[in-house]
Amino acid sequence: MVGNEQAKLVLEGIHKTYETKRPRNTFLRRFLPDWKSEMIKVVAIEELSLEVHAGEFVSIVGPSGCGKTTALRIMDALVPADGGRVLINGTETAEPRSECGFVFQDFGLYPWRNVAANVEFGLELRGVGPEERRRRAQSFIKLVGLEGFESHYPHQLSGGMQQRVGIARTLAIEPEILLMDEPFGSLDALTRRIMQFELLRILGSQRPTTAVFVTHDLEEALVLSDRVVVMTRRPGCCKEIVDVPFGRPRTPEVLDSPEFLELRRHLWESLQEEQVPVAGAVQPDG
Amino acid sequence: MAATVKVRLISLVVVFALWWLGSLLAGDLILPSPVTVVGRFTDLIADGALGRALRIGLTSLAVGGGAAIVVGVPLGILLGVHRTLGRAFDFYFSALYVTPFSAVAPLFVLWFGFDSGTRMIFIFFFTLPQIVIVCYQGARATPEGLIDVARSYQARPRDIFVKTILPYEVPFIFTALRLGVGRAVQGMVVAELLISAAQGLGFLITAYSAALDIGAVLAVVLFIMFLGVLASMLVQRIEDAVAPWHSEVTTTGEPSGG
Amino acid sequence: MAIEVRPTASAGSGEKPRGRRRSRRLVPPQAISVAGLVALWWLASVGQPSHILPSPGAVAGKLWEIAFVTGELWAALQISLVSLLLGGGLALVVGVPLGVLMGAQRTIERSLDLYVIGLYVAPVSALTPLFIFWLGIDLAPRVATVFVFAVPQIIITCFRGARSTPLTHIQVARAFRATRRDIFTKVIVPHEIPYVVTALRLGLGQAIKGMVLAELLISTTGLGLLLSTYSQLFDTAALIAVVLVLMLLGVLATAIVARLEKAITPWRPL
């Protein structure tokens, strides 16, 4: 999958540090919350570098708190990096880019807008006229399988349907790069599996889209991606990158293939090394 | 932190400057300067007028407000726990809560006269709905899940009440106390204004108003308002120290002056 | 290997939850308690002179009289409601923008929060005598009283609204490259609107209380005159009637705005 053309999205030596307050335990703290508290620096990401090529689907997995969501937000400049740089199509990024589309874990739908209005949001901000907006949004609403629900409001929809609206909204601005932050994380296991294959179908019917997908679900990463990036625990950086050799379009049979199980085991072991050591760690079956 | 303090200090200075300017423009008779007000304040303390008024006011406050707490907390919990009783009576307290209660003052005066007992009764009924409603909502807010946990261990109703509902209720009781104190202070002021007491705070205000001694009036008014703020802050601090886990109370706690 | 699926025994057996059915047949407990209260009242009033405790019937009759025969109740209410509308309107015009601004800008919040919270917690009824001194005994001190009663509540509610804008909503807008103006008009303002309606409801309750207090302290026209006249005449029935009407006013006004809230924001668990 590595071509000779310039990489679509490049992270070079990304650093990110947070400052948090750590209060000391004194009785007085109850009356004066700032008493004797100190600021400590937490390094979330250290020296993270990554290249994503056009048309690739890359997943990022890692232990909790490793900074994978932060890394994704840095890619779209929703969060500023403290060191290193992000290059998209060869140019440096300081503000959210029009080439990028972001899908949020908690959907982020506006409750006062119905489905159609939510999907049109990005187009509206770009100044697209009402007729054109409606037309374009409609095609994506249909694509994600929500035809007929245009006038519904988010609170009337299930979690899976809400996330479809979120995806439609992002696709409607036809981004070159899709950034997805655990989009199926708040869904139940069954819906999640359905949505994974739905996503494959949706992306499969579009022109090849570059995607970066953050998840904690190893199987999800393997089902969807061309490559899986494993991050170390905090401070996070790239531990290893695993190629996923399955062809496209992917079908549910791939879940049972021996290669799939082998890759899953490999990823699991890789992640296990990053967990804080616990005596008698559990092995997955298979 | 420093930024916050700076901004607040600056705004305080601005307010005082505007006040002082206003007093220069309008004349000391209409708008006494901060200096005058402080002067009158110390005078009032010195000749004991403020002390007496405070004693009178705080007595009614303590009796009326205290009774409201003693009656209101169990009543609210009872209404919350006992479904039928709750449905039968909760709307009285909600209605009383949005009623302009000061309208009842002339009625109380007609029935009980102008003395301190009347004020205590007024403060009692003024404060009661606030406390009942908060405790009621607290008792009803115990999540079904927690109650089911107790039931799955074959707890008797009495145990469920003591070991599940009551502990969940404690933060609400504190909130009721905090809001109740604020409300009682307001009730005291309204009572003083409408059911006047010789030498009470309300009396001070009306008497000095009539005497055109606005400096004294301002001193008393600002002092009362300061008292109200202090009372609320104190209870808040105690609450934070003793029960730092916060529960959500759905009433926004309207402390009203009527 | 065949997997058998057996239908569950209770499916379609026609059982309905008995408990719910039963309680619908009974009269609602509220009606019972109100009836009980009125009955108690009537009992207590028997044998009492009418200037101490008039019977429910006497109060009802008096209410009819002042409402529909002499019309003095409406005349008084009309006068008083002017101050309510003016003071409340002013409180909205001042309070909503201030609350939103405070929610949006930390500096503004920090410079004003002392005063807003102070006014909110303090017994502002103490200010009315000052207003009387400064502004006279006509409309102005009443409007001022209504204003100081309502405005802190409105500011605080609108502040909470602006401050509670979920971070995700703003991040979504930023990800779609919205300008600051876009974020304000398309995210913060729509999010804020339900809070403004809530502020209206709570502010209205406060405003009514302010109005009544002002009336009681400035008994020259309107409700204040009515109440002081009835007091002097020892017309207890009329006093009780007015109190009931004011109670009804507070409850109705609040309930109507609460309906409006529900209509505007069907997604909020109010």
Number of helices of chain C: 11
In percent, how helical is the residue content of chain C? over 70%
The dominant shape of chain C is globular
Order of helices and strands of chain C: HHHHHHHHHHH
Could you tell me how far the N terminus lies from the C terminus of chain A, measured between alpha carbons in angstroms?
Answer: 29 Å
**What is the residue-mean pLDDT of chain C, rounded to a whole number?**
83
CATH top level of the domain at 78-233 in chain C is: Mainly Alpha
Strand-residue proportion of chain C: under 5%
CA-based shape of chain A: globular
Q: Name the structural class of chain C.
A: mainly alpha
Instruction: Compute the CA-based radius of gyration of chain C.
Output: 26 Å
- What topology, given as strand order, has the largest sheet of chain A? 6-7-8-3-9-10
**Describe the biggest sheet of chain C?**
none
Q: What profile does the largest beta sheet of chain A have?
A: 6 strands, mixed
CATH architectural designation of the domain at 78-233 in chain C:
Orthogonal Bundle
SS summary, helix count of chain A? 8
Q: What is the number of beta strands of chain A?
A: 10
Q: Largest protein interface?
A: B-C, 59 and 60 residues
Oligomer: heterotrimer
Describe this entry's structure for a reader:
The complex is a heterotrimer of chains A (286), B (258) and C (270). Chain A is α/β, with parallel strands linked by helices and 286 residues long. Chain A contains 8 helices and 10 strands. Chain A has helices at residues 68-75, 115-119, 121-125, 130-143, 159-172, 189-204, 218-224, 258-274, and strands spanning 9-23, 37-52, 57-61, 83-88, 91-92, 100-103, 177-181, 210-214, 227-231, 238-243. In chain A, the strands form 2 sheets. A 6-stranded mixed beta sheet of chain A has the order 6-7-8-3-9-10, sandwiched between helices. A 4-stranded antiparallel beta sheet of chain A has the order 2-1-4-5, covered by helices on one side. Chain B has 258 residues and is mainly alpha-helical. Chain B has a single domain, classed as MetI-like fold. Chain B is globular and about 75 Å long. Mean pLDDT of chain B is 83; it is low at 246-258. By secondary structure, chain C is mainly α. Chain C has helices at residues 18-25, 29-45, 56-69, 72-104, 106-121, 128-135, 139-163, 167-175, 180-217, 222-232, 236-264. In chain C, helix 4 (72-104) packs antiparallel against helix 5 (106-121). In chain C, 39% of the residues are buried. The A-C interface holds A 76, 78, 95-98, 100-102, 104, 106, 108, 110-113, 121-122, 124-125, 153-155, 173 and C 168-169, 171-178, 182, 186-187, 190-191, 193, 265-267.
